[in-house]
């Protein structure tokens, strides 16, 4: 079976390395399905899960990715993410607290120094992390 190498890297560490038959990620223009021998491209990523469908039919890995860039070359996909977590490394309690904190901030958005966009992004990250953690269990 034809596969493509994939690495997910943050400034701190290598989060994931493997082989995939398809990788699905959410770029700023929408969802992308990357197969082996895809044309080269570089695209910014949104806060969304990256799904790695492995060579073994039915096996997949979901990675919580918060922003960054995906570079696709003929033989390899590299995701340089601001943050990335595998489901079993996500602290669910911490993600729940972050979600509640962001929701509270959005509800109290009448303050002058309130950064609406920052609170929205925090909420998106928390929801995505919880979703990926749930899938991994």
Describe the model.
The protein is α+β, with helices and mostly antiparallel strands and 137 residues long. The chain has 2 domains: 4-85, F0F1 ATP synthase delta/epsilon subunit, N-terminal (ATP Synthase, domain 1, Sandwich), CATH 2.60.15; 91-136, ATP synthase delta/epsilon subunit, C-terminal domain (Single alpha-helices involved in coiled-coils or other helix-helix interfaces, Up-down Bundle), CATH 1.20.5.440. Helices cover 27% and strands 42% of the residues. The chain contains 2 helices and 8 strands, in the order ββββββββαα. Strands 1, 2, 3, 4, 5, 6, 7 and 8 form an 8-stranded mixed sheet that branches. The chain is elongated and about 55 Å long. The model has no long low-confidence stretch (mean pLDDT 90).
CATH topology of the largest domain, anyone?
A: ATP Synthase, domain 1
**What percentage of amino acids are in beta strands?**
35-45%
Distance between the termini: 28 Å
CATH architecture title of the largest domain: Sandwich
Q: Outline, from the CA principal axes?
A: elongated
Q: What gyration radius follows from the Cα positions, in whole Å? A: 16 Å
CATH C-level class of the largest domain is: Mainly Beta
Q: How many alpha or pi helices?
A: 2
Tally of discrete structural domains: 2
Q: Which consecutive residue ranges, at least 5 long each, have pLDDT under 50?
A: none
What is the N-to-C succession of helices and strands? EEEEEEEEHH
| Major sheet summary line | 8 strands, mixed
Helix content: 25-40%
The CATH superfamily of the largest domain bears the name F0F1 ATP synthase delta/epsilon subunit, N-terminal
Count of strand segments: 8
Broad structural category = alpha+beta
Question: What's the rounded overall pLDDT mean?
Answer: 90
């Amino acid at each position: 079976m034809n596969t493509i190498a994939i690495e997910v890297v943050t400034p701190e560490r290598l989060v994931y390395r493997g082989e995939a038959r398809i990788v699905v990620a959410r770029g700023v223009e929408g969802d992308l399905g990357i197969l082996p021998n895809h044309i080269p491209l570089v695209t910014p990523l949104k806060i969304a899960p990256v799904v790695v469908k492995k060579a073994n039919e039915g096996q997949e890995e979901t990675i919580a990715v918060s922003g960054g860039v995906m570079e696709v070359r003929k033989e390899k996909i590299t995701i340089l993410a601001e943050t990335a977590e595998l489901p079993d490394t996500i602290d669910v309690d911490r993600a729940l607290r972050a979600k509640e904190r962001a929701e509270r901030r959005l509800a109290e958005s009448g303050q002058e120094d309130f950064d609406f966009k920052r609170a929205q992004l925090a909420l998106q990250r928390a929801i995505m992390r919880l979703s990926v953690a749930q899938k991994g269990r």
